[in-house]
Design goal:
By secondary structure, this protein is mainly β. 0% of the residues lie in helices and 45% in strands. It contains no helices and 15 strands. The protein has strands spanning 7-8, 17-21, 25-29, 32-37, 40-44, 51-54, 64-73, 77-86, 89-97, 112-114, 121-124, 127-128, 130-131, 140-141, 145-146. The strands form 4 sheets. The protein has a 7-stranded antiparallel β-sheet, with no helix packed on it. Strands 4-3-11-12 form a 4-stranded antiparallel β-sheet, with no helix packed on it. It has a two-stranded parallel ribbon with strand order 1-15. It comes from Nocardioides conyzicola.
């Protein structure tokens, strides 16, 4: 059996790049799979584990609830947010999107990324992801990537 390629986040570029992914990506909330796709995009940036962007069609109807607020990324532009909803379970501002991303990131326009720490679990090809530390960045750590990762203690100046 072939071993999967391990990627160092220190080999990822800055500014980041986007690449398509055919991995099976699932998001669970309230004991339910609320998103499932084999068509997503990974944003790869130096020192960060990949951030997965899923097409909106991957999300179950009623799962994405637009919410107030925005943020700005120096690379992708202005983001807007979603609460993720599954029955009585709400993950506040756990999803975000770039409706009109900057040049080079057009492929993720309208796609939704999820903060893994705010939902029950996220998986990539069946492997449970570990959320990027710190609660600010949305990277997903799997056995496919190695760090050290931005947002661990002592990484403020990276």
């Amino acid at each position: 059996m072939t071993q999967p390629t391990v990627e160092s986040v220190w080999d990822y570029p800055r500014p980041p790049r986007v690449e398509p992914s055919a991995e099976l990506v699932e998001v669970e909330l309230g004991g339910q799979v609320v998103a499932r796709t084999t068509t997503s995009w990974r944003v790869l940036e130096t020192s960060h584990p990949p951030t997965y962007y899923l097409p909106r069609s991957a999300f179950s109807p009623g799962t994405l609830r637009p919410t107030a607020g925005s943020s700005f990324c120096e690379w992708k532009g202005s983001a807007s947010y979603f609460d993720l909803v599954s029955g009585e379970h709400v993950a506040a501002r756990a999803g975000w999107t770039y409706e009109h991303p900057t040049a080079g990131f057009e492929v993720i326009a309208g796609a939704v990324a999820v903060m893994a720490a705010q939902v029950d679990r996220c998986t990539v090809d069946g492997e449970v992801v570990v959320p990027q530390p710190g609660g600010f960045y949305g990277g997903w750590i799997t056995s496919r990537v190695v760090g050290p990762f931005k947002a661990v203690p002592g990484s403020l100046g990276w």
